[in-house]
Design goal:
By secondary structure, the chain is mainly β. About 5% of the residues lie in helices and about 50% in strands. The protein is built from two helices and 26 strands. It starts with 10 loop residues before the first strand and ends in a 6-residue tail after the last strand.
């Protein structure tokens, strides 16, 4: 598991606005300029920074550090646009620098102990709202396919309000609930939302990273000019990479801990569209199965799923069109108990849809595994 650069550290805070930012004028004793809100994350995913700057020079902020605690700070920028304070109990310097002349061009950079956090300004606000709120259903799939990490798909619903407030709520593939909230920011590569939940497993785990929102189409010529995180992703999609950490613990599921990356992929959710697929095959599997359980089905736009054939594993499934939530159960051994429950999410993409999620297998010899459920197994692309 990655070490935390802020563990047992004392953090001093220095805020400095560079000359590009408006200065106080007319003999005032504090900075004056447009209000702005910022959020950013350390590249290693172990800490985040949020700062709200008022037009009167007053600011509030918070440094969130995984496996430790939150460090709030507040103050007023002087006429020179600077402030120095202390967070924690040691003497290590933490410095913040803001460049830009307007809220839309502000970029805030914080650094400490060689670690840098770049924070970007909010896209929307109460005075500059979006035309509507939006919702995405998103999968988080593993990049490590060994038995030491869950095989099932994690998932989340991502909501962005008209004022740019973002929330991410979902389930990890070991059955753990998670949530994160923040603001949609105008990052260097477009609109971004930080995911940061340091409260997992009694604050002994972490889910963190950045979600990128594809809001424009990139031409092939632009892809040749240089890399961009949204190249290859259709407008209306969200994607990114998240860090998932879980310390070793007592228990049947992944007791040796988890330290892996998850690939995030999601799309705008439209409940009016319902379920666009009409038939297919459902698959359920985990590392202990000799072969996947496969079951053919038909489906209606309203989400009613009917299994064809014998349905020997007694599969049952419900799709909640209002939210995209999917849940059900099956018998790993046909005709025998126990019955295992599964959960998932309906993902709608431009030319189709599919469901993916996870289940927790029965514990055998003190060990349980996470498996996947997906249907249809060959969605239209």
């Amino acid at each position: 598991m990655k070490s935390n650069p802020f563990r047992n550290a004392i953090v001093c805070l220095a805020i400095l606005l560079l000359p590009a930012v408006a200065r106080a004028a007319g003999g005032t004793s504090h900075f004056t300029g447009p209000a702005a809100a910022f959020e950013g994350i350390n590249p290693d995913g172990l800490s985040t920074l949020s700062v709200t700057l008022g037009a009167n020079g007053k600011f509030t902020g918070k440094l969130n550090v995984a496996f430790l605690k939150d460090y709030p700070f507040t103050g007023t920028l002087g006429v020179t646009g600077s402030f120095t304070g202390k967070i924690g109990h040691t003497s290590n310097t933490y410095q913040i620098v803001v460049t830009g002349s307007t809220p839309s061009t502000y970029v805030l950079t914080g650094s400490a102990e060689g670690k840098v956090i770049t924070a970007f300004p909010a896209v929307y606000s109460k005075t500059k709202p979006a035309t509507s709120a939006i919702k995405y259903t998103t999968l988080f799939t593993g990049t490590n396919f060994s038995s030491s990490v869950p095989l099932g798909s994690s998932f989340a619903t991502v909501n962005i309000s008209k004022t740019g407030a973002g929330s991410v709520t979902g389930k990890l593939a070991d059955g753990t609930s998670f949530s994160s909230s923040g603001i949609l920011v105008a990052g260097s590569n477009g609109q971004e939302l930080i995911v940061f939940d340091p409260h997992l497993y009694g604050k002994k785990g972490l889910l963190s990273g950045v979600l990128f929102f594809a809001t424009e189409t990139f031409a092939i010529s632009e892809a040749i000019e240089g890399p961009h995180p949204n190249i290859g992703y259709p407008v209306g999609s969200v994607h990114g990479t998240l860090l998932w950490q879980k310390e070793p613990h007592k228990g049947p599921y992944y007791a040796f801990g988890i330290n892996t990356n998850l690939n995030a992929q999601g799309f705008l959710y439209n409940k009016a569209a319902g379920v666009p697929f009409t038939s297919g095959t459902m698959a359920l599997d985990d590392a202990s199965f000799s072969a996947p359980i496969l079951q053919d089905f038909t489906a209606t736009t309203a989400g009613v799923v009917t299994f064809t054939g014998s349905n020997s594993h007694n599969i049952k499934v419900t799709i909640k069109i209002a939210t995209g939530a999917v849940f059900g159960s099956f018998e790993p051994v046909a005709g025998a108990k126990p019955t295992v429950k599964f959960k998932g999410l309906l993902i709608q993409y431009p030319v189709g849809a599919f469901v993916s999620g996870y289940f927790l297998s029965p514990v055998v010899d003190g060990v349980g595994l996470s498996g996947y459920v997906t249907f249809p197994t060959t969605p239209m692309l």
